[in-house]
Amino acid sequence: MKTLSAIKALENYKLQCTFDDGTQKVADISVYLNAPAFVPLKQQNVFKNVSNQNYFVEWKDCDVDLSADTLWHIGVEVE
Known about the structure:
Blueprint: E1 4-9, E2 14-19, E3 24-28, H1 44-47, E4 51-52, E5 56-59, E6 64-67, H2 68-74, E7 75-77
Antiparallel strand pairs: 1-2, 2-3, 3-7, 4-5, 5-6
């Protein structure tokens, strides 16, 4: 199970993820935005209010979360 040491919201619904092993990836979550639970994240001010909970990230304003494992799998490694 992956854990996150840092998370940062970027433009275009991307998250810069730093994992416990030092790996950095950028995860594009725009593919999720049409799912009913994720619609509130279309508002940039809501999207940018992401919180790192180590095993997952969450957006408390709208009760949405994504696991660190999901972000690992959809992320593209930063060189």
